[in-house]
Amino acid sequence: MTDHLSRRRFLAGVGGASALLGAAALAHAVTPVGPFSLREPRARADSPQDLPVNRSARHAEVTALALDPAWTLMVVGGGMTRAFTADGLERLPQRTVRLPIACVEGWTVDATWTGVRLRDLLTTVDAPEDATIRFRSLQQRGAFRATTMPPQYVGDPLTLVALQVNGQRLDLDHGYPARVIAPGRPGVLQTKWLSSIEVLR
């Protein structure tokens, strides 16, 4: 009798756990970004533009610099420097791509990004096709205030200096006024709050 009850309890437990996992999977399929998400455990429905925030503008101490109307993106290489205002970037040919943000903390979120193709910006300073570049952020401290991008990403037509995400101007916490988005790169290397792009070679 005891063995029969124990077996019944075991089977009931397995069935309950399966039902719970099934419900969680269904919730993820219906609401992939939200408190029941399996793919984006840090995401919440009230996150800016349906994307989780790993490091906010406040924590990066860039709010005043990012909101400064005099902000410009400097593109430097080949003995030339080009300065682009936010309006100037918006007047350049725009591309829209669907790419994920993948964080080292374990979450991944797909988003639709619109901005200027990186290669198009680099042609303004005659950068070579196999250029390696350095991005600098407005943030003054932290390991990722400057990042380097090798040629295979620089030349990828999907790599953008993004100005919009999911059809809206970038939220401040997502890198306003401009950020990098490239396929296959960890989120920490998708530099937010860009201040300059420098051709290293």
Report on this structure.
With 201 residues, the chain is an alpha+beta fold. The longest helix is centred in the N-terminal third of the chain and has 29 residues, at 2-30. It has 6 helices and 10 strands. It has a 5-stranded mixed sheet with strand order 2-1-10-5-6. Strands 3, 4, 7, 8 and 9 form a 5-stranded antiparallel sheet that branches. The termini are far apart.
- Broad shape: globular
**Radius of gyration (Å):** 22 Å
Strand order of the largest sheet: 2-1-10-5-6
Beta-strand percentage?
25-35%
Q: Find the count of extended strands (DSSP E, 2+ residues).
A: 10
Biggest sheet details: 5 strands, mixed
Report the order of strands and helices. Answer: HHHEEHEEHEEHEEEE
Put simply, the count of helices is 6
Report the mean per-residue pLDDT as an integer.
82
- Which bin fits the share of residues in helices? 25-40%
Helix/strand/pairing class, anyone? alpha+beta
So what's the oligomer here? single chain
Defining key terms:
26% helix, alpha+beta, 10 strands, five-stranded mixed β-sheet, 201 residues, five-stranded antiparallel β-sheet
What can be said about this structure in brief?
This protein has 201 residues and is α+β, with helices and mostly antiparallel strands. It is 26% helix and 28% strand.
Chain-wise SSE layout:
Blueprint: H1 2-30, H2 57-60, H3 63-67, E1 72-77, E2 80-85, H4 86-91, E3 95-102, E4 108-117, H5 118-122, E5 133-137, E6 146-149, H6 151-154, E7 160-165, E8 168-169, E9 179-181, E10 194-199
Parallel strand pairs: 1-10
Antiparallel strand pairs: 1-2, 3-4, 4-7, 5-6, 5-10, 7-8, 7-9
